[in-house]
Design goal:
The chain is an alpha+beta fold. The chain has helices at residues 13-30, 37-46, 55-62, 71-83, 126-138, 155-159, and strands at residues 87-90, 95-98, 109-114, 120-124, 147-152. The strands form 2 sheets. The protein has a 3-stranded mixed β-sheet with strand order 4-3-5, with no helix packed on it. The protein is globular, with a radius of gyration of 16 Å. Bound molecules: zinc ion (3 copies).
């Protein structure tokens, strides 16, 4: 993975956004899925920062000329983006984040949530995934997509 888990405050975020949108378009084309205008708007709103947004914040940000999308429209777009692995839900915040890490769908991701700046980093770990599956199977348990969320302080906030 070439990207840092937490982006420095002065990173080229336009590049992040452009890369993520290009990736989303390529992926949808490859899977014969449509990145409709509302899906694209929701993804763009989430790509505005590396911080999670609640559904109602997304509605505010995708409003055009004061016309706000219905919550169901936004939730459907979010469902689509999550199915495609372009967006993740941060359970503990009841919020959503655009994925800029381009990892496999269904891969275990550890979300690192900074309590100071609110940014969320993703640390993919095959080793952790393997251990968890082993532990779950030992308990006779069949895990679905595991989600791990860890709160703390990111390197930029700790050093700042
Ligand atoms: Zn960025
Ligand atoms: Zn991700
Ligand atoms: Zn931070």
């Amino acid at each position: 993975m070439s990207q840092p888990i937490f982006h420095s405050p002065d990173h080229d975020h336009d590049r992040c956004t452009a890369d993520a949108l290009a990736h989303a378009e390529a992926l949808c084309a490859q899977r014969a899925q449509r990145l409709t205008p509302i899906r694209r708007q929701v993804l763009t709103a989430l790509l505005d920062s590396h911080k999670p947004l609640g559904a109602y914040e997304i509605i505010d940000r995708t409003a055009t000329d004061g016309a706000r999308a219905a919550p169901i429209t936004i939730y459907r777009a979010l469902d689509f983006l999550r199915e495609q692995g372009l967006v993740h839900r941060i359970e503990s915040r009841n919020a959503f984040i655009a994925c800029v890490n381009n990892h496999a769908n269904g891969e275990l991701v550890v979300f690192l949530i900074c309590d100071t700046c609110g940014e969320v980093g993703e640390a993919a770990s095959a080793a952790v995934a393997g251990e968890l599956k082993t532990a779950a199977r030992a308990a006779g348990f069949t895990p679905k997509a595991p989600v791990i969320e860890i709160t703390g302080v990111c390197a930029h906030c700790r050093n700042g």
